[in-house]
Fold these 3 entries.
Entry 1:
Amino acid sequence: MELYNRGKEGDIVTAREAFVEDCFEKYYDFLLKLCRRRVGNNLLYADLVDSCIQDTFLLVYQSYPDLLQHPNPRAWLARTCLNRLLPYAQLQRNRIGHEAFSLDAKDFVLSTFLVDSESLNLLPLLDEIHSLLTEREWLIFKDYFLEGISLADIAHRRQIHIGTVKAVLHTIRKKVRKKKRELLDNM
């Protein structure tokens, strides 16, 4: 094993370890910004981003001989990190998105119809939303916004594709926004 003296308090480390340290010092901030742009600068994703970056540097350690020969290590790091991030980001987005949104379903209804929480009576608001939606849309609305069920679970429960669930949720949001605009115009 080739040794490399970094000059830090007399520590002797391998060339592989020194290479990983150098990559970490050079590219950590770059990878952090790249990942945050991909998943949004949401604190819910902070642990996810850190885990993917750490996994990437573990792969740097494992792929040391190949990476030395790579013409563009920065591009390799970026692609590797994003590849590590993508499946986790999709799972987290589904899981966190629902949990966060199901916890804030009340806030969604309140903010949509501009109602203050002190005079809260959700039943008329939910009736208003129900009147806007088809039966299928209403069932998906309840599953997603009120019960906090994941997109995949809704698709399984309703025996439809996940893309259909996403499209229906998009339609629901459009209808609710349209109703909100109508209410604001009438004020």
Entry 2:
Amino acid sequence: MSTFRPLALLMLAELLSPVVFCQPASAQATPVTVPDNILYRAFFHQAAVWKGFADKEVAQGIFDGPAAKHFRVVAGLTSGEDVVLKSIAVDCEAALVTIERQRSQITAPYRGAGLPNQTPLPPSVRQQLASLYAQRAAVLSGHLQQLKSAFATSRFQVLDAFVRKTIQFSRSPATPVK
């Protein structure tokens, strides 16, 4: 399960290069309104990681341990909602990992090839990357819609409030380089 963390951080860094992921936002940072697809990307990753922890507990014979009931406790989800959330999150994570692998394969020939950093990628490669970016956006949007459809409106609002409270982004002031 630890392979998800670097991929998620790289994807967030790619999408939000000047934005810092933090929990909670520091007092000096300016709050940032984050699009749902980016916010829920981070949350789906977190839910998939908790699912992995819960699976490890089950393998050890702990069938309703702390990891298994994490979202029931901290977000007030029912057992059924928890199962649905983790299922959607794991499916989303798997789809995004596949897209990230494709992106990595496409860009591999251009990394470390002695090309200056400012050398633009060929148009065909840029087009492939744009297509993958659109696929990633569609995957996130589709999984968020699945989550909304699976939860009653009032229950999704409870989950959404939890997500917005716990997954925070901020824009930190620039630190001058000496």
Entry 3:
Amino acid sequence: MTVSKEFLTFKNRLRHFDDDIEMVDILCTTIKRNRLENGADKLFEYQVPEKHPNISSYSIRQENRLLLASHLRTTVYSSYVKDVYEEVTMYLRGIVSEAYQNATVDPRRIIGEHKINMSTVDVLAGIRDGTLAQTVIDNMFQTLENERSTIALIDKTCRKLGLNVDSGVVDMAVNYLEIRHKLVHTDGLADQEFKDTHPNLRYTQENYIDLTYQTILSMHDAVFALVKALDEDAISKHIINPNIASTQTVTQT
């Protein structure tokens, strides 16, 4: 299957994030199954008080080992959600930029009524350096992101480029991408409206989003499917170019 350069970049970066998820799962499972030995004088074998003063301040109990592992897992899961969201945004920004450079879409359709304030010096510098178009596109995306609406970001990008993707594929990906807004703005605390519109997620008794290994795997699959669908449609309509070396089959990892 032919894919774009932007898709390959997205896929490769997502793979690195997936490695982090697998690694933390291995570490946490190892800590859980290898219980603390009786008479141990520290929580972890290679713990050094001078180098790890915070860890060394914990009492030597298996419960504290599990507590620290759980906190690490939560931090990595949270970072994964935020990083994947940023990668989707970078992919969308990339295909809009390429569509403009390829002159396959009317610039008026891409930019629409978006307005940007730039000094005359910056405009002339952008013209001289060839960066003016990218600056405008970046500013447009920043404005869309400020709306705090993932569905609006994807929908407006599709409309600007004339892309058509199955609404079910979009909705499934957005369902997970919207977790990022809660993590950034409320530290993961979900209000009732969010819980009602995201019934497939798990929540703690305190109404925080409970990120689990399965949630992360499901997010990966949903987001990968969305970007793959966007890429296929954009290439089929000659909006963006296929990567020269991408006659390979892209498999979901």
